[in-house]
Amino acid sequence: MAFSLSADSITTILLDIEGTTTPIAFVYDVLFPFARSRTRGYLEEHFEQTAVQKDLARLREEHRNDVSQNLDPPYLLTGTSAETIDSVTAYVHWLMDRDRKSTGLKSLQGKIWQEGYLAGRLHAQVFSDVPLAFAHWHETGLSLSIFSSGSILAQQLLFAHTEAGDLTKFLDCYFDTTTGPKSAAESYRCIALELGSATEQVLFVSDVTSELDAARLAGMKTLLCLRPGNHVQPAKHTHLCIETFAEIDR
User: Fold this and answer.
1) How far apart are CA 82 and CA 102, in angstroms?
2) Residue 69's CB: how many other CB atoms inside 10 A?
3) Backbone region of residue 135 per phi and psi (left: phi > 0; alpha: psi in -120 to 50; beta: other values)
4) DSSP state of 112
């Protein structure tokens, strides 16, 4: 086995989603295109809702920062006209084109995906070893949580509607970018504090070495997940690697 949980006194497993529990292709080829195609229609139907207005407020603040940094984002109108909705849609698509880890964007995407999941138009993919590992870790008393750039709503929806069934019964907590950036050590310290765990008792598994570097700096144990279709990571890193959760031994 690549990693022994008991030998390292691990009590909590913290997982990334994209490239760790779920194929990157599902995110980029299914979820993102679905949200993109439904952005304008969703805004037309739900523009006045309080939750959507909160997302728009975050997007407008981000837009101001983009303008101040001379990033040349699409012009963003205010008000409730069709032209305003068009401008918000254009800005959302602009952010998606840049794969921006934007809290406002991720929150809005989560709401759009919710409609898709509830309508049966979306079914989430997870790697084949994930359901068995979740069940095993749960049965052995481990705490299992998620840290993803996708909104907490999007995370909950994904694991509730997988092709293998509802996996949320195995998950204790969800964390997104409202906690902090995934590349910042302080984010992982905050997560450990909220979980009531010492950082050294938490194992973080991700497909991105910069995230693992931050988690390790915070004191967590780390594993680099090598899944089919994952992006190549820098060769010079010191994280143990796994290709399946079966390599994590209780």
Assistant:
1) 24
2) 9
3) alpha
4) H
Distances, alpha carbon 192 to alpha carbons 18, 162, 163, 196, 204, in Å: 21, 27, 30, 6, 11
pLDDT in tens, 45-56: 999 999 999 999
Whole-structure pTM value: 0.92
Instruction: For 146-156, write each residue's pLDDT tens digit.
Output: 999 999 999 99
Contact yes or no for 55/110 (Cβ under 8 A): no
How far is Cα 28 from Cα 169, in angstroms, rounded to an integer? 26
Q: Strands 173-175 and 240-242, how do they pair? A: unpaired
Tokens 């101001």, located at residue: 64
Residue ranges covered by each domain of the chain:
3-22+124-249, 28-118
Q: Which residues contact 121 (CB under 8 A, 6 or more apart)?
A: 34
* Centroid of chain to Cα 118: 19
Tokens matching residue 85: 């909705």
Residue range 3-22+124-249, CATH number: 3.40.50.1000
CA distance 171 to 186: 22
